[in-house]
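Reminder to self: tokens first, then the designed residues, so the page reads top to bottom the way the pipeline ran.
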């Protein structure tokens, strides 16, 4: 834990540097829509320290829970895939709509309280200025950086949705058993090409999985795409096909706290948790990229950064608010 804290302190110095301007061009039209107001440094005048506050608050929170970075990264993915990046995912249920968090496909989404705490820090300096949607995107970006990944030039200027969409969440969000075709089509709708799509799956390098998402590969027989010794270890952790009897969290790869290309190296050895990840490694449309990323971490970082900017630039054109409370629309 001491070494993790030291890493965070060292990265704090990095966080004070200006975001790399070489990648500042806006992405092409994507998914739902893109807003011409999205840009680097959107809060330069209205809240000059906004991104510093996000990063410094997050660093403090990660010292309390080093596993939260992976959770915040997944939160951003699931927010942007439903109506665009609009913080609809963290709205509580109301008589008018059900929360997207009630979707089974959002199983395991957590640390929304960290978004609340970052929002509270920002409200203290710049009331009703920084959107919850931007906080989610920035917290994901900084979680990547603080785990040793690239410093991604994420644009800002998103607005917050005034509703959630549980129906779309149930229909659209990917699962551990989604097909390669489904993933490629979903990302293509956001202007993300196959190589970039594979790089985004590399986000699985952080965090853990659960037996819920693995038992289908272990019982009644072991998936042939899984390394035998790896499957034996997983059966110890998930000893029953009834997933609710298994509460073990399983590292996604052998460096679960570090954002690196280990996920792709493990994939080459058939040591990945999810059926989707195994399929991406074996599908000829995508395996060429998993191999390249396993061999070249710099290529993975560059491709992931480009894809993440595209993903987080998909916006909801109907989103109009800057919520003061991220869990509820403004009255």
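Designed residues (331 positions):
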């Amino acid at each position: 834990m001491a070494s993790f804290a030291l890493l965070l302190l060292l990265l704090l110095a990095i966080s004070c540097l200006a975001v790399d301007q070489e990648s500042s061009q806006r992405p092409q039209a994507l998914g739902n829509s893109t807003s011409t107001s999205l840009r680097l440094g959107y809060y330069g005048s209205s809240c000059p320290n906004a991104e510093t506050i996000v990063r410094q608050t997050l660093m403090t929170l990660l010292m309390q829970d080093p596993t939260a970075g992976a959770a915040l990264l997944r939160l951003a993915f699931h927010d942007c895939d439903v109506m665009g990046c609009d913080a609809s995912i963290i709205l509580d249920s109301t008589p008018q709509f059900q929360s997207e968090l009630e979707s089974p496909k959002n199983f395991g989404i957590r640390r929304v309280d960290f978004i609340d705490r970052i929002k509270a820090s920002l409200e203290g300096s710049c009331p009703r200025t920084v959107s919850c949607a931007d906080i989610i995107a920035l917290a994901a970006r900084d979680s990547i950086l603080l785990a040793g990944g690239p410093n991604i030039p994420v644009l800002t200027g998103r607005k917050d949705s005034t509703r959630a969409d549980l129906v779309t969440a149930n229909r659209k969000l990917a699962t551990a058993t989604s097909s390669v075709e489904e993933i490629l089509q979903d990302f293509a709708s956001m202007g993300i090409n196959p190589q970039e799509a594979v790089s985004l799956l590399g986000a699985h390098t952080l965090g853990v999985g659960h037996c819920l998402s693995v038992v289908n590969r272990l019982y009644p027989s072991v998936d042939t795409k899984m390394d035998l010794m790896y499957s034996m270890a997983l059966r110890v952790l998930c000893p029953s096909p009834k997933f609710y009897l298994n509460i073990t969290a399983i590292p996604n790869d052998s460096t679960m706290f570090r954002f690196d290309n280990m996920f792709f190296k493990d994939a080459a050895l058939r040591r990945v948790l999810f059926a989707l990840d195994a399929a991406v490694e074996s599908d000829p449309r995508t395996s060429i990229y998993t191999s390249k990323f396993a061999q070249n971490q710099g290529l993975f970082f560059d491709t992931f950064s480009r894809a993440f900017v595209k993903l987080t630039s998909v916006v909801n054109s109907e989103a109009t608010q800057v919520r003061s409370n991220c869990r509820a629309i403004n009255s």
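The CA atoms of residues 218 and 231 lie 7 Å apart.
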